[in-house]
Amino acid sequence: MLIRVLLFVMAFSPLSLLAAEPLVKVPNLPSNSELELYEDSEGLFTLKVLEFYKSAVVLETQIKLSGAEPVLNVEAPTFEELEDMEVKTIKKFHKTAQSLESQVQGLPDSERQILLENINELESRLRDTVAVYTIEAGKLRNEMLDLMLSRLQEIEETNKDNIDLVIQQNYLNCRDYNSWLSVAGISKLFFFNGNDVLTNDPGLGAAINLNIGDIVGFSKAFQVRYEYLAPRFFTEYKSLSDMGIIPREQWNTNVNSLSAGGKVDIGKNDNIVHGFEFYLGYFWADGKIYNRSDSRMNWDGALFSVDYFIAAPSCRMPLELFAGLSVYNSFSRSLIFHTAVGGYEVNDLGRTHLSVNLGLRYHIWRTPF
User: Mind listing the pLDDT tens digit for each residue in 194-214?
Assistant: First the structure.
């Protein structure tokens, strides 16, 4: 109680008590966005709570010296409240100060003289004590301010380092991120051993990769991939070129595959991430010569592919370059191109074929979890 009276006497002269207004004006409550900033800084939070607490103490003292009973008892903030740094604590002390301010504004004018007499009596009795207390309080306040400024500077430096680290890890460096969804453009070229009828130019395709490792309980690197290709196959009838027959016809071919596998990193740092991808799955294909209903091709089987990939670890460049080799094999039948050209009705190319590919992948969705 003595400390509250001293604070009251130190902060305000007796003449100010003749006014009809409260001795202090309670500051407005910060906006919601500003309150979030106070939650992030221990020093700023404590200062704001003490600001409202001080106003409440002065107003409570004014009410008691006026001979009235405060509508609320002002209690000092606890260590737990300051440590928890919750917005509701700031709102609590602001509400208390506002309630006492409203009570002061409602005091009858007849109580002012009583208040003035009480103040004058306190001044004469406590003048010497106040002088000593002011000196000691000034020293203590300066020490507290120095400690608080040092703490605020420390917090600022720590937050700056943490912000820089967050930016580095979550916005620039994605080398340890998991790719949940990606799309890729592919160019693929097939090789057929011992064949002089079928040729092909690099065809185009697309692939979609989906990470389902967490869903099925496997490794986080486990993915499923759907791939669609439109190879550029041609049948060439070299022995008929002198007979006026079209020596080269293009096929309209579709190759689909569904496979599962994952990545194995062989190296990653702040500049580059690279490694291999392995996939095993099933493929199916069909085709015919453009504008020729008497031609056909149907084939399916097992697919194994391995790709080497290389990428930058930056989230600003979610691109990945890859190149690889695929093996297409059917355990039950050969790849056969049927045509209506005499001598080339059945073109058996065998059961196993290779392809090489080059592609560019774009990671649509990547997270660190």
Answer: 677 888 999 999 999 999 876
CA dihedral 340, 248, 254, 341 (to 10 degrees): 10
Domain positions in the chain are: 2-170, 178-367
Contact present, 230 and 189 (Cβ < 8 Å): no
Q: How far apart are CA 133 and CA 138, in angstroms?
A: 8
Tell me whether strands 198-211 and 178-191 are parallel, antiparallel or unpaired. antiparallel
How many whole angstroms separate alpha carbon 129 and alpha carbon 123? Answer: 10
Separation between Cα atoms, residue 367 and residue 334, nearest integer Å: 44
Query: What span, in angstroms and rounded, lies between the C-alpha atoms of 219 and 228?
Result: 26
Q: Residue 113: is it exposed, middle or buried by C-beta count within 10 angstroms (0-12/13-18/19+)?
A: exposed
**227 confidence band (pLDDT: 50, 70, 90):** very high
Domain 178-367, CATH among 3.20.20.70, 3.40.50.2300, 2.40.160.20, 3.40.50.1370: 2.40.160.20
CA-wise closest residue to 279 among 265, 268, 264, 266: 264
Q: pTM here?
A: 0.53
Is 71 within 8 Å of 103 (Cβ atoms)?
Answer: yes
pLDDT digits (tens, 9 = 90+) for 119-171: 666 556 555 554 555 666 567 667 777 787 787 778 777 777 666 666 555 55
> What is the C-alpha separation between 186 and 228, in angstroms, rounded?
9
